[in-house]
């Protein structure tokens, strides 16, 4: 995997893969045959500009000059914008494609703004796109046609800021998920009579105790945990455990560092002691939360420069610490609640407020529906009255057409040319078939 993904995905927390084919870097010159190309799974960051971000990375990676500069750049070079200046030296076809991507993104944002304004019934004579686009921080809104160095700098800066709290948001999402489960459990118990409630509470407690009865979980990053991987995953003698060899074995893309993905792969054996994805009693949300906690624990104790990567030097230094050889047993989620009782009470109050708001909206819709029904009945009654009036008028005209016309002074019959003497069929054809729609509605 090229350094583009190392820096932009891991250093800047861009946990994404652009889904492009990549060949591992050959550190021994041209002596080794290239390894089989691997296509990584496309991971969505959850950002609203995720597609734009991935496409920009994909295009930049195709330029040899930019890729070479990125290989030698450090985290600060990327964050402070020095790397963005290299954009002026990329090939013309790359700049053309980046310009096209930016215009597409601006067009998409305009559509989002229009949809937002339409949904909020905001009446504007003319939409000021330039002003509204300023709320999006991942591109330069003043230049909507070309992709410049400032656009790359803003994109990196925005993605860094937006994803720095990504793990915190995942923890919060899990907490709300757990509180919702507990709320539903309590509501269910309230619906039971005392005997059934006691029986159900006992059953739930037995399930919890059964879940807690699992083998010892080693602290992630400890010698016991790594030796277990060395023996069971790598198939090597635990007595011959060597940290440097272990590091190289699990640096699967051979880039000289362990990224977050490679670290999380080391926790599989520990997670399988507690969670069984095939067992319906286990919760995948809990398993992923546990994996996240393990990765954060290792990063906190090993990643000394906080670049979201573990170098060989950092890894070897961590094995010299006292905690490495004398780590305590890992406390799993089932031994520590994800929330307090006060947090649960606030969450339930929030749910009640939302339910009341939904009920008010439902009542308002019901009243509106009833008004529409009444209006429909009034319109139907008015239509029937109008049809009856047309029928009576037609009958009167037919009766008038059957009389003898009056005799004039000379004894001749006179013919009236007024509208009332028209043939019934002609009168019928000239009358409207439906009543005017703007007639007042009878109360």
Which structural traits does this protein have?
single chain; about 450 residues; mainly alpha; Recoverin, domain 1; two-stranded antiparallel ribbon; 18 helices; 2 strands; flat; disordered N terminus
List the helices and strands and how they pair.
Blueprint lengths: L2 H9 L38 H12 L2 H9 L2 H5 L12 H28 L9 H4 L16 H16 L1 H25 L3 H19 L10 H10 L10 H8 L6 E2 L1 H6 L2 H5 L11 H19 L7 E2 H7 L3 H4 L15 H61 L22 H7 L13
Helix pairs in contact: 2-5, 8-14, 8-17
CATH topology of one domain: Recoverin, domain 1
Strand order of the largest sheet: 1-2
Helix-strand topology string: HHHHHHHHHHHEHHHEHHHH
The proportion of residues in beta strands is under 5%
- CATH-wise, what's the superfamily of one domain? EF-hand
Structure, briefly:
57% of the residues lie in helices and 1% in strands.
Explain this structure.
Helices cover 57% and strands 1% of the residues. It has 443 residues and is mainly α. Among the domains are: 49-119 and 129-155, no CATH class; 192-339, Recoverin, domain 1 (Orthogonal Bundle). A two-stranded antiparallel ribbon has the order 1-2. The longest helix has 61 residues, at 341-401.
């Amino acid at each position: 995997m090229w350094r583009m993904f190392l820096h932009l995905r891991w250093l800047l927390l861009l946990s994404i893969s652009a889904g492009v084919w990549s060949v591992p870097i050959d550190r021994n010159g041209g002596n080794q045959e290239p390894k089989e190309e691997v296509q990584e799974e496309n991971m969505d960051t959850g950002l609203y500009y995720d597609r734009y971000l991935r496409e920009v990375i994909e295009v930049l990676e195709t330029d040899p000059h930019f890729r070479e500069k990125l290989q030698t750049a450090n985290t600060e070079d990327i964050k402070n914008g020095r790397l963005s200046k290299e954009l002026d030296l990329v090939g013309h076809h790359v700049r053309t494609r980046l310009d096209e991507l930016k215009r597409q993104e601006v067009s998409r944002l305009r559509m989002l703004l229009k949809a937002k304004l339409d949904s909020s019934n905001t009446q504007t004579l003319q939409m000021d796109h330039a002003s509204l686009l300023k709320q999006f921080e991942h591109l330069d809104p003043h230049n909507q046609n070309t992709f410049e160095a400032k656009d790359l700098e803003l994109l990196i800066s925005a993605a860094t800021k937006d994803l720095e709290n990504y793990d915190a948001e995942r923890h919060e999402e899990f907490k709300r998920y757990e509180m919702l489960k507990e709320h539903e459990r309590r509501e269910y118990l309230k619906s039971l009579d005392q005997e059934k409630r006691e029986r159900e509470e006992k059953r739930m407690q037995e399930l919890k105790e059964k879940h807690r009865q699992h083998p010892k979980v080693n602290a992630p990053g400890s010698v016991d945990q790594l030796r277990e991987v060395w023996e069971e995953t790598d198939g090597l003698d635990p007595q011959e455990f060597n940290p440097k060899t272990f590091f190289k074995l699990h640096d699967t893309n051979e880039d000289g560092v362990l990224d977050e993905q490679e670290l999380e792969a080391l926790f599989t054996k520990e997670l399988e002691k507690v969670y069984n994805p095939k067992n319906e009693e286990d919760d995948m949300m809990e398993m992923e939360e546990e994996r996240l906690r393990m990765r954060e624990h290792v990063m906190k104790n090993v990643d000394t420069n906080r670049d979201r990567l573990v170098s060989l030097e950092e890894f070897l230094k961590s094995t010299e610490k006292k905690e490495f050889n004398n780590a305590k047993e890992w406390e799993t989620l089932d031994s520590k609640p994800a929330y307090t009782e006060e947090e649960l009470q606030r969450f339930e109050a929030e749910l009640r407020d939302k339910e009341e708001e939904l009920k008010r909206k439902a009542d308002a819709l019901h009243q509106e529906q009833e008004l529409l029904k009444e209006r429909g009945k009034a319109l139907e009654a008015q239509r029937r009255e109008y049809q009856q009036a047309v029928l009576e008028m037609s009958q009167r005209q037919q009766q008038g057409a059957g009389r003898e016309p009056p005799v004039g002074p000379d004894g001749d019959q006179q013919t009236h040319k007024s509208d009332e003497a028209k043939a019934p069929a002609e009168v019928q054809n000239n009358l409207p078939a439906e009543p005017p729609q703007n007639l007042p509605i009878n109360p």
